[in-house]
Amino acid sequence: MSNETKDKAPVNGGSEYVIEMRNITKEFPGIIANDNITLQLKRGEIHALLGENGAGKSTLMSVLFGLYQPEKGEIYKDGKKVTINDPNDANALGIGMVHQHFKLVDVFTVLDNIILGVEPNTLGFLRKKDARRRVLELSKNYGLNVDPDALVEDITVGMQQRTEILKMLYRDNEILIFDEPTAVLTPQEITELMHIIKGLAAEGKSILFISHKLNEIMEVADRCTVLRKGKYIGTVNISETTKEELSNMMVGRDVKFSVDKDEAKPGEAVLEIKHLTVKSRVHKKNAVNDVNLTVRRGEIVCIAGIDGNGQTEFVNAITGLEKPEPGSTIILKGEDVTKKSIRYKNSHGISHIPEDRHKHGLVLDYNLEQNIVLQRYFEDEFQNHGFIKFDRVRDYSEMLIDKFDVRSGQGPVTPARSMSGGNQQKAIVARELDRRHDLLIAVQPTRGLDVGAIEYIHEQIVATRDAGAAVLLVSLELDEVMSLSDRILVMYEGEITGELDPKTTTVQELGLYMAGAKRQDKKEVTAE
């Protein structure tokens, strides 16, 4: 395995590298996010950037894109030193970025978001038809099908991701930064995106690809630079390394890639869903159509499906974020909670790791400790006659931060907005798993997490099951579905179309059900 260390940066600014970031240092209060890092991107290569949550990957790319200014270091484009003060400078240099947390305006349409800032016009009059035609052409060419007229607030997270990618392609950028681009995509969409990324590199575009998913890096990248706790660990050729070596470089120890768990011992029913129907806000068909299922204590039931097939609305109806149609019944521990409030459900046994951590998981302008007690500050443990027990909140937060390895520059008082995506996710998982619950609803619980964190979260979910809780898992990750579930229910177009045993089914069969190519009769799908 050959390492190309930062010392080998060509001092003469040779044109072998389309982008060079030399000795970049970026600091935030209480933390050095990037500590003297050098990154070299060759023309036409796919260069992966790998590291734990909070290792400094997104920060480094934000420096390149002009969102942050480094304390030290220089950036070279085609061997010439450049100054990038803001994203407009980056775009002028042909640098585009698909952000991990989408930079979209919710009340605008998909089309308006894509052309925002580069609107085609003649004498000040917007030529929207031309823009629409170009966007539809790009979406067709790259297999990124979107509805240009849909409002962003009404589309799925997966569709928002496609909108971000189209935004960059629309601008004809030659250096493309993908920050965790597959975090919310389905396996089929990931395969398509990998094909697109390879095609873009073949056209001569240079790509920086941030991912926690080692399989993707092994498949698509030419070289990989590894960061750990803000420091440069090394750059390796993918053809000369292994997944195990990369994971060891990333977390500093060997990582298990399989989930260890005993046979499930299902007990009494915790959640019973009867004839659940939810209207779609996007089209005339129901988003969820007459779904019946039961989740029992001591089992992990997984809802598998391609994004946009009703999983979001299904979970929202159970947790209280969306109203189900009349005739729907949600029973929690024998009690009808269909019309109960979100707080009632939370305080009566439901923990919920939401799909969208920014919209439903955190108050971004609150600090970490405030977010950790968000659903419990009114309990006697944390308040006395309406006055918050701040010392108790601090102690409890510090305990969870340590237990779940939530990395933050200022500890409990770190603003949630300033934390890395993976550490925001860890904070939500810590809060929900530590609350007393009979039912854990986990939607994409390991989204954006590194392999070490995924290993730990999977262990905690299994421990939750073994402690006697019921777990309803919603995941787009086929590996996660197959290894963590005790039962798999496939949701397609708002209906449960199959019940599968992860011990006897295959990834291929599961994929057929998810794509709608295969389905069981309704009487076959007991969902119990």
Give a verbal description of the structure.
The protein is of the alpha/beta class. Among the domains are: 256-349 and 438-528, 3-Layer(aba) Sandwich (Rossmann fold), CATH 3.40.50; 362-435, no CATH class. The chain contains 17 helices and 24 strands. The strands form 6 sheets. The protein has a 6-stranded mixed sheet with strand order 6-9-10-3-11-12, sandwiched between helices. Strands 18-21-22-15-23-24 form a 6-stranded mixed sheet, sandwiched between helices. The chain has a 4-stranded antiparallel sheet with strand order 2-1-4-5, with helices on one face. Helix 15 (451-466) links the parallel strand 21 (439-443) and strand 22. The chain is globular and about 70 Å long. It starts with 16 loop residues before the first strand and ends in a 14-residue tail after the last helix. Mean pLDDT is 88; it is low at 1-13.
Quickly describe the structure:
With 528 residues, this protein is of the alpha/beta class. The protein is 31% helix and 25% strand. The chain is globular and about 70 Å long.
What's the helix and strand layout?
Layout: E1 17-28, E2 31-42, E3 46-51, H1 57-64, E4 72-77, E5 80-82, H2 87-92, E6 95-98, H3 110-115, E7 121-122, E8 125-126, H4 128-141, H5 157-170, E9 175-179, H6 187-202, E10 206-210, H7 214-220, E11 223-228, E12 231-237, H8 243-251, E13 269-279, E14 286-296, E15 300-304, H9 311-319, E16 329-332, E17 335-336, H10 342-347, E18 350-353, H11 357-361, H12 368-372, E19 383-384, E20 387-388, H13 390-403, H14 421-434, E21 439-443, H15 451-466, E22 470-475, H16 478-484, E23 487-492, E24 495-500, H17 507-514
Parallel strand pairs: 3-10, 3-11, 6-9, 9-10, 15-22, 15-23, 18-21, 21-22
Antiparallel strand pairs: 1-2, 1-4, 4-5, 7-8, 11-12, 13-14, 13-16, 16-17, 19-20, 23-24
